[in-house]
Each structure stands twice: as structure tokens, then as C-alpha cells.
């Protein structure tokens, strides 16, 4: 392409001279034009002349080729500025136009790099460099446009590589920081080690506090526990010699004194004789492993030692996703013991095969519900299937959709206790509701200062309702003084307060006449928590009976006293007439017996015998009446000495008749008693044993001390004394019928005629009266021909 001669600055055919210029060479314009075009094409650039005033550009052939045009497609070399801007890349167009607008106002061109779209659709990068020229009458920019596509592409690739490297470095640093990694680059030749920032961070450093980098392996060794240094040094030496790098785990002590566990792996660097060690902080993982091991150990311990039957079950589902079976995964020792199945017989086995009836128990329902709700369930069930009969406390817990934790404890004993407690509770309620004793529980009401100002009903039984005329609903939760205001002034309120504050139980018999309640009552007031348990009985009828009994006893006592006085006086006064009868009958026999004929003397003898019997009766009656008179005080009496003195005369008298006698006596204690009466007691008992002995057998008498029986304690239940001794007088005499064992203690009661055995029939009555006078009890036991036992219970 040739430039028109009218504007081409190189056109030498122009006749019009150019001021202040001289041609450097004398060459034709065609040659110059051709040389310029070839040079532009060869070096891939072009040029234009931009006449600022007219906005016209003159394009060179090289520039035309650069934009993808040929001579046929380009047309005239004269183009408007818009022709150029139409070829600008859309992303660069606005920037380039703004740049050209600015250039008009500048006297210097700043190089511009933009993208263009060529005529044949290619994208190129061009560089525009220009210089303003004044060789024409109007300012003109002479611009050199160079194709820099290859340079820009190379530069962009380099920038991408650099960017990628920076991203990778940043990513590596991020990975090191966030995932607790670090790395060391070790030069085996120089023995220098380069620490990454992640490695510095792992060991407690910052780039500012680290110091020289690279450093020697000694820095790393200084962070090892003392016991690990030698081993690690040998490992480093081994690596340097053999280059056989293997993974390792190692404890380190960081700059701030923390202990960590690092896992290291080696890799060969791309640079010769360099290796990279990547270290990862696995402290938490190790701690988790330890925790997992500890938890596993604890779980195994729990399963081995728990008193609960426990198991982990794997859920088996059917095609409809419903539970169809359970398989044992883990079982406790207790479960093995209670099912009597070994671990090998349970693990991996079907529950329904081992215990088919479990489907009919509460456990199966719990398994189904827990899998749906994912919430634990606790329950009680009486399992009476598969040969077992036990009350169980069961629990099922959700682990995941395929596993359940199931446990149970046999609670037969607890259930029995619970049932017993329920029975006791029912019994207690029945006792309270059916008790004839009135039972009321009160809770104290206190003011702000803690003083008791009232009581409230907390419990009332039907018996109390009968007395008060108020139902349980009317009383429970209601004020005591509201119902019974009189209790504040009659002393009951103060008594209740005293019991609560002191804890002292009070027993009170009282006459109550207020609030429609009238009668005698016997009550017990006991502290119960911060309140009172009040139990009482209506003893109005009993009190009236007691008063009647007391009046009767008073009259009876007076009558007995008068009778005793009469018996004593009568017995004493009758002695004189009897003595005279006996005396005169004796004189009659002595002085007039020769004058008496026929039955006269016989009659007198019978009269004397009758007088003697009468004297004996009077003496015995007098002795009986004396027992009730306290003519002698109580003393300490040695029973062994007393009984021995009583026995000796009886023994001598009987032995004089040739009778063989065996007499034994236990060691007896001293007792507080009336000596003369105790003497009379044993004289009568021993006398009877001698009197009623068998004539053809030796006489055996035993006096023994025996422990009290329940029957004995029952006989003494109304006696105030607490300590008693039991003395048994036993012989081998003729005995008597058992039905007479009460009768023999009556006045003038004889089991034999006077012709067989002498006596008045008062002796045993006197014995019983003596024992009762000492607040004791006496009874007898015998069989005919087997002797007799007389049992005496006396206060110690």
C-alpha cells in the first residue's frame, strides 16, 4: 500500500519543500515505501499517522496486516478514529477511548496495551507507542503499533504460575495452621534444616521469635524429652547414611512447655540430597484414642461387673421395616449368670430363638416404641416365659436405628418388700380406719417469729369423727382452734405446744365438756415431726365402772376388815369357853368316871375330841386371819437357812418312825419378805409332803429354783413387780386328781376323811394367802400316785 503524496511525509516527489528539514538519503519514495512495508511485516508491527484536528488516521501496510486485512479487504489507507475503536476488545474499549481522549490534551504519549479483534476474528494484544510531530501544519501523532500477543500470553502464564504458587503456598500454610501440620526441609549435605511457619507454630514459635532459619537438627532435638534424644539422634544418623526413611511418632516439648505427640512422614525433595519431613500434631487423636480405650475398658468393666443384666442388641428388620428379631452383640456377666447361658451361646444368636416368648412380654413393646421415639423407656414386668418366673425392672435405650441397649434387674425381693409395704400400708390404713381408738395428727402453725399459734388437722380416723361429730372432710386442713376454741383456755393448747417444743410424751386422763363433747377420755400426746400425734379413747363407761369397782372394793375392804376383826376376836374369845369345856370334861372323867356306866365315858371322850378339833380349827382360823395383819415388818430372808430350820424337826420326827427320807434343795436367793409368814409357808408345804407320803416307799422331797414360763408371766401380768423367782416344792407322795388343783387352796377344803389324815383343811389356804400378801402367785400340779408340785412365785 502506498501513502498519498499529499500527506505522506516521506513522499519525495512532493514539489512543495518542507521547512527546516533536509533529506538524509537520496532515495526514491517507492523504495522507501517498499522497505517500510517489508520491515513492518517482518517484525510484526505497523504504524499510523493520527491527525488530531480531523480525527483521521493513515494506516501503514504493516498495520493493515496486523489487523487481519489484505489490500482487497482494507480499502483506503485513510480511516476515521472510529474504525480503530471498532476493533477494540469490548472489555478494553472504554479504557482505550478514554485514553485517546486524554492523549489529545497531552504532549507526550504513554504506551498503551489493549486487546483487539482482527478482521479474521482473532484476538491480539497490541502495544501503541507514539510521539507528536510538527512536521505538518497541524499536530500529528506518529504511532508505532506492535503485536505483543506472544509476550502478553507468556507474561500471563508466568503470572498464573506465580499466582498458583502463591495460592499453593498460602493453602499449604493454611493447611499447616488449621490442621496442625508442619514441615522440615533437611539438606543432607549441609545438614541445614528449614522450618515452615506451620512447624514453628507447632513448636510454639512465631517467625519473629524463631531466630535463624535454616538451622541445624539440634534445635529439633532440644525439644525432645531427655530419654528420647539418643534414640532420635541415632535415627537421624541412620537416615543420613541409608536414606531409608520410615514414618514415626514422637513426643516433643514445645517452647511454652506443652507436651505434644507428632506423627512424621518423609518424602524426597525435587532437589537432590534434600528430604522433607511432614509432621502432624496427633495429640488430640492420641488422647481420643486413650479416651476410647479407657471408655472401652470402662464399658467392658461395667459389662463384666455390673449387677444388672445388660446387653447390646442388633435390630433385625423385615421387608416392611418392622422389627422382626434381635441379635446379641454384647452381654454382661450377670446376664450370662441369670440366663444360665455362656457368652458363646449368646453373642451373635437370635433372641427369639433363645427366648421365643419375649414377644409376649413388655420388653418387645419397649423395643418397638424406643426405635420409634428414640427415647429411653423404663418399666416393670413379671416375666413368666421360657422357664423363668421373675419380677424384672427393665430399661431399653436407643443407640442408633440398628442397635439398642437393653438391661434388666431381677427385683423379686424388692417386689416382695414393695408388696409387703403396700400390704402394711393397707393394713395400717385399715387399722386406723377401724381402730376403736381415736387417732388425730396435727401439724403446728407458727408465726413469723417461730411461735406456735395453732395446729392444723392432717389426719383423722372414723373413731374421732364419732366422738367429735365432724367428718374427715370437715377436719383435714382446717384449724384446730377454729373447731375447738375452748382448747386455748382449758390447758390443751399449752400442753400440745409443750410436747412439740420439748419432745416429751404426755399421758393424760381427763374430763372434757365443750363443743358438744362430754365424757372421760384417756389420751396419749406424742411429738410427730413439727406436730402432734394425739390418740385417745372414750373411757366414760370404764371410768364409771372403775368408780363403781373402787366403791365396791372400798366396801369389800371395810367388810373384810370387819370380818378379819370378827374372826380374830371370835377365835380369841372362843378359846376360853373351849378351855373350860375341856377342863371340866377332864375333871369329870378323873373324878366321876367310876360312876359313869354304859356309853357315858365314850360320850365324854368324843366330847373332848370334838373340843380339840374345835381348838385346832379356831387356831388355824386365827392364824389365817393374822396373815392379813402387818404385825411384823419386811426383812431380807435367807431362804436356804429358813427352809433348813423348818425341815429339821419334821425330818427327825419322821425318821423316828423308821421312814427313809431324801431331801434336796437348790441354792435359793435372799428375798425381801415377812420372815414369820415365809416360815409358815414352807412349814405347811413340807408338812403336807410328809403327811401325804406313801407308806411303803421312801419319801423324796425336792425344792428347786426354776425359770419363769410364759404362763407364769401371764399370771403376773397385773402385778407391778418386774423381778420374780420361781420355787417348786415337789414330792413323790400320793398326789391328787388334777381337777382339784384349784379347790385345795380353799378354806376347810379336804380331799380325804379325818380318819385317813389329820388336819383342818386350812393349811394350803394359809399358804396361798401368804403368797398373795407378798404380791406373788401360787398354784399346784399333780396326778394320783405321782406326787405333787407346789409352785410359788415371789418377788425377788
Automatic annotation (TrEMBL):
SMART domains linked: HATPase_c, HisKA
Enzyme superclass (EC): transferase
The keyword S-adenosyl-L-methionine belongs to this UniProt entry's keyword annotation: no
Alphabetized Pfam families for the sequence: HATPase_c, HisKA, PAS_3, PAS_4
Molecular function via GO: ATP binding; phosphorelay sensor kinase activity
InterPro entries found in the cross-reference section: HATPase_C_sf (IPR036890), HATPase_dom (IPR003594), His_kinase_dom (IPR005467), HisK_dim/P_dom (IPR003661), HisK_dim/P_sf (IPR036097), PAS (IPR000014), PAS-like_dom_sf (IPR035965), PAS_4 (IPR013656)
Catalysis: reaction(s): ATP + protein L-histidine = ADP + protein N-phospho-L-histidine
EC number: 2.7.13.3
Domain of life: Bacteria
PANTHER family (alphabetical): PAC DOMAIN-CONTAINING PROTEIN, PHYTOCHROME-LIKE PROTEIN CPH1
Name of the featured protein: histidine kinase
Amino acid at each position: 500500500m502506498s501513502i498519498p503524496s499529499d500527506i505522506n511525509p516521506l513522499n519525495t516527489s512532493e514539489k512543495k519543500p518542507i521547512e527546516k528539514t533536509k533529506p538524509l538519503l537520496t532515495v526514491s519514495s517507492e523504495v522507501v515505501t517498499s522497505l517500510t512495508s517489508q520491515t513492518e511485516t517482518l517484525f510484526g508491527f505497523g504504524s499510523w499517522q493520527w491527525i488530531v484536528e480531523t480525527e483521521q488516521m493513515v494506516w501503514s501496510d504493516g498495520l493493515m496486516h496486523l489487523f487481519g486485512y489484505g489490500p482487497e479487504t482494507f480499502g483506503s489507507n485513510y480511516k476515521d478514529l472510529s474504525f480503530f475503536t471498532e476493533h477494540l476488545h469490548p472489555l478494553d474499549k472504554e479504557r482505550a477511548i478514554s485514553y485517546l481522549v486524554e492523549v489529545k490534551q497531552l504532549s507526550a504519549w504513554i504506551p498503551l496495551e489493549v486487546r483487539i479483534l482482527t478482521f479474521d476474528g482473532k484476538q491480539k494484544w497490541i502495544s501503541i507507542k507514539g510521539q507528536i510531530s510538527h512536521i505538518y501544519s497541524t499536530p500529528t501523532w506518529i504511532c508505532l503499533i506492535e503485536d505483543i500477543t506472544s509476550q502478553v500470553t507468556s507474561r500471563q502464564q508466568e503470572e498464573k504460575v506465580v499466582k498458583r504458587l502463591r495460592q499453593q503456598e498460602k493453602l499449604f500454610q493454611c493447611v499447616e495452621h488449621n490442621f496442625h501440620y508442619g514441615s522440615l526441609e533437611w539438606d543432607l549435605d549441609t545438614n541445614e534444616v528449614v522450618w515452615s511457619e506451620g512447624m514453628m507454630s507447632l513448636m510454639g514459635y512465631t517467625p519473629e521469635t524463631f531466630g535463624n532459619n535454616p538451622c541445624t537438627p539440634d534445635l529439633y532435638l532440644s525439644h525432645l524429652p531427655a530419654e528420647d534424644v539418643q534414640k532420635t539422634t541415632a535415627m537421624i544418623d541412620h537416615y543420613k547414611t541409608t536414606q531409608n526413611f520410615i514414618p514415626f511418632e514422637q513426643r516433643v516439648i514445645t517452647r511454652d512447655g506443652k507436651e505434644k505427640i507428632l506423627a512424621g512422614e518423609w518424602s524426597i525433595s525435587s532437589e537432590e540430597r534434600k528430604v522433607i519431613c511432614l509432621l502432624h500434631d496427633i495429640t488430640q487423636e492420641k488422647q481420643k484414642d486413650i479416651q476410647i480405650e479407657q471408655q472401652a475398658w470402662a464399658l467392658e468393666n461395667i459389662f463384666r461387673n455390673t449387677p444388672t443384666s445388660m446387653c447390646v442388641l442388633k435390630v433385625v428388620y423385615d421387608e416392611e421395616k418392622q422389627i422382626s428379631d434381635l441379635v446379641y452383640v454384647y452381654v454382661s456377666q450377670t446376664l450370662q449368670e441369670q440366663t444360665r447361658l455362656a457368652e458363646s451361646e449368646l453373642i451373635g444368636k437370635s433372641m427369639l430363638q433363645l427366648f421365643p416368648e419375649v414377644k409376649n412380654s413388655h420388653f418387645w413393646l419397649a423395643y418397638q416404641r424406643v426405635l420409634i421415639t428414640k427415647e429411653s423407656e423404663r418399666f416393670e414386668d413379671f416375666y413368666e416365659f421360657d422357664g423363668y418366673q421373675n419380677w424384672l425392672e427393665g430399661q431399653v435405650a436407643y443407640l442408633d436405628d440398628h442397635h439398642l441397649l437393653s438391661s434388666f434387674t431381677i427385683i423379686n425381693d424388692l417386689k416382695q418388700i414393695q408388696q409387703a409395704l403396700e400390704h402394711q400400708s393397707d393394713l395400717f390404713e385399715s387399722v386406723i380406719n377401724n381402730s376403736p381408738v381415736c387417732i388425730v395428727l396435727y401439724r403446728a402453725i407458727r408465726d413469723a417469729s417461730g411461735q406456735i399459734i395453732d395446729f392444723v388437722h392432717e389426719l383423722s380416723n372414723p373413731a374421732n369423727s364419732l366422738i367429735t361429730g365432724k367428718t374427715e372432710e370437715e377436719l383435714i386442713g382446717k384449724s384446730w382452734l377454729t373447731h375447738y376454741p375452748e382448747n386455748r383456755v382449758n390447758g390443751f393448747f399449752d400442753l400440745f405446744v409443750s410436747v412439740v417444743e420439748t419432745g416429751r410424751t404426755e399421758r393424760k386422763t381427763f374430763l372434757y365438756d365443750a363443743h358438744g363433747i362430754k365424757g372421760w377420755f384417756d389420751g396419749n400426746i406424742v411429738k410427730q415431726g413439727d406436730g402432734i400425734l394425739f390418740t385417745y379413747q372414750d373411757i366414760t363407761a370404764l371410768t364409771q365402772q372403775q368408780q363403781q369397782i373402787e366403791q365396791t372394793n372400798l366396801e369389800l375392804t371395810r367388810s373384810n376388815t370387819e370380818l378379819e376383826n370378827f374372826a380374830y376376836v371370835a377365835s380369841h374369845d372362843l378359846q376360853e369357853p373351849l378351855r373350860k369345856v375341856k377342863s371340866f370334861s377332864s375333871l369329870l372323867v378323873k373324878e366321876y368316871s367310876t360312876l359313869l356306866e354304859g356309853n357315858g365315858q365314850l360320850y365324854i371322850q368324843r366330847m373332848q375330841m370334838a373340843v380339840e378339833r374345835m381348838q385346832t380349827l379356831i387356831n388355824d382360823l386365827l392364824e389365817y386371819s393374822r396373815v392379813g395383819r402387818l404385825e411384823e415388818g419386811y426383812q431380807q430372808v435367807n431362804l436356804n437357812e429358813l427352809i433348813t430350820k423348818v425341815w429339821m424337826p419334821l425330818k427327825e420326827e419322821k425318821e423316828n418312825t423308821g421312814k427313809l427320807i431324801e431331801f434336796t434343795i437348790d441354792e435359793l436367793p435372799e428375798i425381801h419378805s415377812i420372815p414369820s409368814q415365809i416360815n409358815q409357808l414352807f412349814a405347811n408345804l413340807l408338812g403336807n409332803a410328809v403327811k401325804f407320803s406313801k407308806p411303803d416307799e421312801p419319801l423324796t422331797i425336792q425344792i428347786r429354783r426354776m425359770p419363769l414360763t410364759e404362763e407364769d408371766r401371764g399370771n403376773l401380768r397385773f402385778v407391778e413387780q418386774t423381778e420374780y423367782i420361781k420355787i417348786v416344792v415337789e414330792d413323790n407322795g400320793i398326789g391328787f386328781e388334777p381337777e382339784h388343783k384349784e379347790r385345795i387352796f380353799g378354806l376347810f377344803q379336804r380331799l380325804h376323811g379325818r380318819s385317813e389324815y389329820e388336819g383342818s383343811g386350812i393349811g394350803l389356804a394359809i399358804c396361798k394367802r401368804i403368797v398373795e400378801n407378798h404380791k406373788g402367785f401360787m398354784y399346784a400340779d399333780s396326778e394320783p400316785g405321782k406326787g405333787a408340785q407346789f409352785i410359788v412365785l415371789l418377788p425377788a
